[in-house]
Amino acid sequence: MKSLNATVDILKTPLVIKISAFTVIAFAFFYLGKHWSDGYQQLIFFSTTRQTPPFVSLSPNHNKQFNITAIIVQNDTVAAPVKNLTLPLSAASTVPPPAPRFFGLLDENGTMRNDFEIGDFDQEFVENWGNDSEVQSGNGGSQESPRFQVKRYGLCPTTMKEYIPCMDNVEAIKKLKSTEKGERFERHCPKEGKGLSCLVPPPKGYRPPIPWPRSRDEVWYTNVPHTRLVEDKGGQNWIFREKDKFKFPGGGTQFIHGANEYLDHISKMIPDIAFGHHTRVVLDVGCGVASFGAYLLSRNVITMSIAPKDVHENQIQFALERGVPAMVAAFATHRLLYPSQAFDLIHCSRCRINWTRDDGILLLEVNRMLRAGRYFAWAAQPVYKHEEVLEEQWEEMLNLTNRLCWELVKKEGYVAIWQKPYNNSCYLSREAGTTPPLCDPDDDPDNVWYAELKTCISRLPENGEGANLKSWPARLQTPPDRFQSIKIDSYISRNELFKAETKYWSEIIASYVRALHWKKMSMRNVMDMRAGFGGFAAALLEQNFDSWVLNVVPVSGPNTLPVIYDRGLLGVMHDWCEPFDTYPRTYNFLHAAGLFSVERKRCNMSTIMLEMDRMLRPGGHVYIRDTLDVMDEVEAIAQAMGWHASLRDTAEGPHASYRILTCEKHLLRG
């Protein structure tokens, strides 16, 4: 009896009761599920085992028909027609999968097509922008009320769609005392208070630029709607129009059969030129549409293509639209904005410059910028034509280059190539009174901002700085000798400072690629607005970006341009309190690290940002990395210009003194 009572007590325990209840419920669900399954059509399914090949299993309801309308809840919507799910076995096993769909960018193999077309801007990137005075605010990322407010900027008149402030200052140009030496093609910036105060609009029908490398060969007509070059140079294989595009066959006045053939010819003339190894940085004077520089890119050579804004005023605009480095610049009365010993090769093909005028003052400027021991190539009629006037010009050129101690190393066909000496020994051994003389020892050949040309020969450093460089690409990561002469305060060795900056930007760009997906952005034409030693540009090369970078060195800081060129990069001197010498909408990406916290002591930040907007393409991006105390004003100005701005923490975290403002420019329409 005690045993029976014990058994009853156990059965009354909560655990046993729960187990029993669970078992009853499980059996009930199994029964109901089987009952429902027997009355409902099942789907065909596939089974796979490792021992046998895949086979098709059939539902027990195969070939049965059911009317299920009775169990569907009726509502006010129109029911979709019920489709018979029953398939014969043969049909189920032979129906092919749907063919993949491709949407213009990919071919049937799933790879990028070369012939896809870029359409108009997506509507999300287009904004109607009235010229009202709505106030935009910035608070530097804090949760407090806005500390800075800016009225929204209006659109400029459509007549200003290609406005270059320092080149289109008609009022200042009219006041020039003389224009015979090309003064009107130099910088004449608006006076303070008369600068840009509106947003330069794009031309009607502006479209996203064709991406590189296709842009080397074609651009949209609506983006640069000018046919003057087609009319003047169409027969020289420069450019022609085909429907809604301009096409660039790769020719030039002196190389109508194409730039590649011309470059091969130069390489055979002087094997030491060695494009992509000994020759990395080139200056092309009077560049046309920059086909010479465009085709050098495939040989690991980066070329600064320059031309004035003259009768063929849009040639530099075409070059930049193609994705080729270029600037508006002229040989006139002032030094160009590049350092001494910058270029491994300087090229002039029918550049329409009288090199021997005024005691050779223009060729002396070439001599200043040409690296010691490197080459000047001249392709022009005096080289090969035997007309009296042209022969006299050739003799004048020979006489001048002899006095400059240049050696004529080769004259073949329509090209002549000279080599600059490695040191000053030839200059010092000339006869007394030979002109032009050497410049004074205290003359700084790297002083270029509004510096007038001089009729003297720039001295070469006695220690050989600038001439002793490694070949490309080793020179990119090697601290150059000229780094030791840069006027900077350094508490560690110069070489360690160089390596530290290189590592700093290498790590930052790598993080941008990972976290901010930089590889998905269009970054063909890039400008670093405060370049330092060129570490940002070097990091982009390290990450294999298909882009080129113009490294801008502000006049407010140390002149690091010689280091940038010795590394094999492009750069230019500039004062950001003034406009830059480029056309509107010529850069995809602008980078400004520590720029505003320095320049706000000298000029209005809105002046700089309006110029940034002028240079930036619709759809382009801006990254501003700076201190917290400038971010509220910068953010407010960015919003007042219609940029879509977002403030981010740096890798140091939310308590760091720096922030990153990422901006995207949309297409604004009046």
From TrEMBL:
Similarity comment: family membership: Belongs to the methyltransferase superfamily.
Keywords noted in UniProt: Glycoprotein, Golgi apparatus, Membrane, Methyltransferase, Signal-anchor, Transferase, Transmembrane, Transmembrane helix
Positions of transmembrane segments: 15-33
Topology in membrane: Single-pass type II membrane protein
BP term (GO), one: methylation
GO cellular component: endosome; Golgi membrane; trans-Golgi network
GO MF terms, alphabetically ordered: methyltransferase activity
Its EC number(s): 2.1.1.-
Protein name: Methyltransferase
Entries under Pfam families matching the protein: Methyltransf_29
Compartments it resides in: Golgi apparatus membrane; Membrane
Organism: Tripterygium wilfordii
PANTHER family to which the protein is assigned, alphabetical: METHYLTRANSFERASE PMT11-RELATED, SAM-DEPENDENT METHYLTRANSFERASE
